[in-house]
Amino acid sequence: MAETAVASQLTELWETPKTLCGWLGTVDHKELGIRYLVTAFLFLIVGGVESLLVRIQLTHSNMNFLSPEGYNQMYTMHGVTMIFWYAAPILSGFAIYLIPLMIGARDLAFPRLNAFTYWTFLFSGILLYISPFFHQAPHAGWFAYVPYTLTEYSPGVGMDYYALSLILLGISTTGAAINFVVTIFRFRAPGMAISRMPLFAYSTLTISCVIVFAMPALTAACIFLELDRHWGTHFFGIAGGGSTFLWQQLFWFFGHPWVYVIFLPATGMISLIIPAFSRRPVVGYAWIAISTILTGLVGFGVWLHHMFTVGMSDIAMSIFSAGSMTISVFTSIQVLAWLATIWKGRPVATTSMYYAVGSVVMLVIGGLSGVFTGIIPVDWQVHNTYYVVAHIHYVLVGSNVFPVFAGFYFWLPKMTGRMMSEKLGKLSFWVMFIGFNVGFFPMHIIGLMGMPRRIFTYPAGLGFDKWNMVITIGAFVLGVGILISIINLFVSLRSGKLAGPNPWNADGLEWLTDSPPPPYDFEHIPLVASRHPLWDDYDNLDDPDDDRVLDGGRLTTITTWLDAEPIGVATIPEDSLLPLVMSLTLLGFFLAYQFHALWIALALIILTFLAGCAWMWPHTEKEVL
Amino acid sequence: MKPFAPGEISPFAKVSSAFALLGLAKRPMLRRAGTLAAFAGMLALAGCRTAESTFNWRGPAAHRIANLSWDMTILFVVITIVMWGLFAFAFYRRHGTLAEHEPVEASGGELWIAIGGLAVPLLILTVLFVAGLSLLQAFPIHGMPNGLSQAQMAQAMKPEIRITGHQWWWTIDYLNDDPSKAFTTANELHLPTGRPINIEVGTSDVMHSFWIPALHGKVDLIPGQANYIRLLASQTGTYTGQCAEYCGAEHARMRLLAVVQTPSEYEAWLEDQRKPGNAPTTPDAQAGEKVFTTAACALCHTVRGTMAHGSVAPDLTHLASRQMLASDIYPNNTSFLEAWITNAQSLKPACLMPDLPNFSGQQLRDLVAYLQQLH
C-alpha cells in the first residue's frame, strides 16, 4: 500500500521511536504481543528441556541420572513453568497481538497496563528461576500440597520463590484479564455486534472473567503459605489448628478453572483456523460461543474431582463428578462443530490446518480419559498415576501446544510479513504428532499398570521398563519436531516469501491490514456487517470522507458492548517508562523481602506506589491539529 | 459379598473380543476394524500381567472397578477410532482452494452437533455416571461425615487395623479390644481372605496415600483426619502397593507389601506377631541383643520384650518374619541388613535411618544375627 498523507500522519502519531527508551517504553500491543509470545515460547523450551531430563531419569528402572531431590525439583519446575509461564502467557500473547486487529481497534483499552503486565510476567518468571541457583528450586509439584511445603518439611527457599513468583504472576495475569474484558466489550469496530465477534474473542473474554474470579484464590493461598512459613500463622499446619484441606480447596478452586484458562483460548483459535481452511463459516457459531461461556462457568463447579481420594462425603463427590461429566459435553459440542465444519466445507491441507485437526483428534483422547478419571471409584485407581499424566498431556498438548502451533503457522505471516515453509511445517507436524503419541499414549497403559506419578524411579519387574523406554524416545522425537518448526521460523524470517495482507484469503478483520500491520493497525477504523468481514460483499474500509481516520491524536472508537454502536472516541496513551519502573520496583520488593532486607522492601513498595501515582497523574494529551 | 473368581471378564470385554474375530473377515474394511480392535485389546491386556496392575485384581472392589475400567476403555477406544475416522474422512473426501470460499450465509450441520455433540455424549455420560455411583455405593472409602467426631467414626467403622504413614514407611497397628492382643508392625500388611477388614489410615507427618491396586483404589492419609477403607481379598498371595501422594524426596521408594493368607494362616500369623521378640539363644545373637539395646538402635526402634522402646522407626519385634527391608525396597537378607545398618543414607537418601559406620565387623555380624532370629 502506498504511503498516503493520512498514513504518514498516523505513523507519526503511533510509531514508537527506535531507541532504547522507545523499546523499553513501548505500549504498542503488537510489539508487546510478540514479546509475550517469544518469552512464553522460551519458557516452553526451558520446560521442555526439563521434561527431557525427567524422561532420561525414568528411561530404566533404578536409573541414577538425577538424584531423588534433583528429580523432584526438575519435575516441579517442568510443571510450574509449563502451566503458569508457558501455557497461559502464550495465549495472552496471541490475544494481545490479535484481539485489537480482530475487532478493528488500534490498541488494547489499557496499553500501559499491557506493558506493565508484560514486564511483570517476565520478572515473575525470572524470580522463579532464581531458586535453582541456590539448588533449592520448588520441589512439591505444581500444586504444592501442604504440609509438605511448610518449613518443617521444606526448609529451603524453593517454596518461597514458588509462592512469591506466583503472587507476582497473579498481578500480571489479573491485569491482562481486565484489559481483555474492557477491550472486547468496548473497542469492537462499529457494527461488530456481540453476535459477530470472532470466537477467539469469546474464549478470551470468558477466560478473562474466569481469571478475575479464580486468581484471588491462588494469590490468597500463596500469601497464606508464605505467612505460615515465616510469620507464625497457622492456616495450614494442623498443630496450630490449621487445615490441610484449606490449601487444596483454595488451590483447586483456582486450579481447575485455570485448566480452562489455558484450554479455551486455544479452542477459540481452532474455531477460527478450521473454518478458514475449510473455506466456509464455522458450523454452530452460537453452539460454540455458548459452550465456551458455559465451560468457563461450570469450570468453577468441578474442582473437587482432584480430591476424590481425600475422604469426602459421597454426595459432595457425586455433585462434582456430575459437574465434570457436564463440562465434557461442552467440549464434545465444540469437537462436533469442528468436525461438521470440515465435513461441510472444502478443506485445504495447510500446515496450520494439520495442526488444528491434529490437536482436535488428540483432544478427543484427552477428553475421554478425562471422563474416565471423572468416575469416582475408577478415579480411586487411576488418581495420581501416569494415567492422569497421560490425560493432562493429551489435553494440554492437544488443546494448547498444537493449537498454538496452528496459530503460529496461521498468524506468523501477519506478524512477520513473511510466509513459513509449508514443507518444513508439515514435516514438523508429523514428527511432533508421532513423537507425542508414541511418547504419551503408553502413559495410559503404565498408569493402569499401577505406576504412580512423581516417582523418581521404579523397581524392575513391574513391567514399566519397556514402556518408559518408548515414552522417553517419543518425548525426544516430539522435541525434534518442535526444533524443526523453530528452524522453519528462522528460515522464514530470513528468506520467507512475502505474505501480503491476506495470504490465506481468510475472513477475519486482522487480514484487512498490511503484514506486518502499521503501528496504527488500521488507516480507517473498519465497519463490520457480518461475522466474516472479508468474505462478505461489504467494503469495510469504505470511508470516502475520511470520517474514520481519527488522526486527531492517538484515537480509536468506543462502541456499545452489545451492538457495537459507536458512542465515542478513546485516547490511547503515549509510550511510557513508568510501567517498566513500577514492575521493576515490584520485583525489587519481592527480592528484598526474600533476602530479608525488610527496610528496603518497605522503601520499594512505597516507590511502587509512587510510580503508580506518577502513572495515573492527570495530564493533557499532546494536541495534534 | 461374593468373591469373584480371577480371570472373569466383563460382558462388554467379551463382546469386544468377538469384534476382534472380525479380523478374520474377508472384506478389507471389516478386517481393518477387526485388527484395530484386536490391537486395542492387546494394548489393554499388556496392562494385566504384572503384580501391581489395577487389572490384576484380587478382591471384589478392584474387580468391579477393573470391569468398569475395561468397559470404558473399550468404549472409548471405539469412540476414538470412530472420531479419528470421521475427521480423516472429512479431511480427505474433498478439497478446496484458498481462492474460493462458501458464501457467508452457508448454514446447516447443526444436527451433527445436536446429536453427536450433545445427545450421544449425554446418554453415554449418564450411563457411566450411574455405573460409577453404584460402585461408589458398593465399595466406599470414608472420610469423616459431618457431625461425627473422630471417636464416633472409629466406633462406627470398628477398624481392625490402623495404618500410619511416615516419610517414607508405614506403621501398621493391629487393633484389639484386648490390649494384650494388639500389636504393631511395619511395612508388611497381612490380611485374611474372605472377610472384609476395616482399616483406618492416618499420617504422622505429610500427606500420603495408601494404595494396593490389586485390592481397591487409593485413600489419602491426611494430617488431622482419619480415613477408612474396607479391604476384602479373594485370593491368597503377595501384592505390592505404593504411596500414591507425593510426600518428599523418597516418595518413589515408599512401597508396601500386602500378604493375603487363608484365615487359619492369618490367625496363626497374628498369634506369632503378638509374642514378644525371641530371646536370643546363640552367643552371637546374645551379643547382638546387647549391641542393639545399648547402641543407638533402641532410641528409635522397638523390640517388644527388651529395653528397646523407640517409637520413631519401624517396630522390629518380628523383623525376620518380614520379606523386605526399608518399606519393600530391598530383600531382607544378611547382606542388605548389614548394608542398611551401615549405609542407609546411600540406600535410601534422606530417610531418618542414619549411617552407622562405627560398628566393628564382629558387632555388625552379632547385630544381624540377633535381628535375623526375631521371627
Fold blueprint:
The complex is a heterodimer of chains A (625) and B (375).
Chain A: H1 5-14, H2 20-25, H3 29-58, H4 68-103, H5 111-128, H6 158-186, H7 199-230, H8 244-261, H9 264-278, H10 285-298, H11 314-344, H12 351-374, H13 376-382, H14 386-416, H15 422-448, H16 465-495, E1 555-559, E2 566-571, H17 578-594, H18 598-616
Antiparallel strand pairs in A: 1-2
Chain B: H1 11-20, H2 28-45, H3 60-92, H4 110-138, E1 141-142, H5 150-157, E2 161-166, E3 169-174, E4 183-186, E5 188-192, E6 197-203, E7 208-210, E8 219-221, E9 227-231, E10 237-242, E11 255-261, H6 263-274, H7 283-294, H8 297-300, E12 324-325, E13 330-331, H9 334-347, H10 361-372
Parallel strand pairs in B: 2-6, 5-11
Antiparallel strand pairs in B: 1-9, 2-3, 3-4, 6-9, 7-8, 10-11, 12-13
pLDDT averaged residue by residue of chain A: 93
Distance between the termini of chain B: 35 Å
What oligomeric state do these chains adopt?
heterodimer
Task: Please name the fourth-level CATH homologous superfamily of the largest domain in chain B.
Answer: Cupredoxins -  blue copper proteins
**Which structural class fits the helix and strand makeup of chain A?**
mainly alpha
Shape of chain B: elongated
End-to-end Cα distance of chain A: 25 Å
Biggest interface, CB < 8 A: A-B, 97 and 106 residues
- Taking pLDDT < 50 over at least 5 consecutive residues as the criterion, the unreliable ranges of chain B are 1-12, 20-26, 44-49
The amount of helix of chain B comes to 40-55%
Percentage of residues in strands of chain B: 15-25%
Per CATH, what is the topology of the largest domain in chain B? Immunoglobulin-like
Key terms for this structure?
heterodimer, A: mainly alpha, two-stranded antiparallel ribbon, 63% helix, globular, B: 375 residues, alpha+beta, 3 domains, three-stranded mixed beta sheet, 41% helix, disordered N terminus
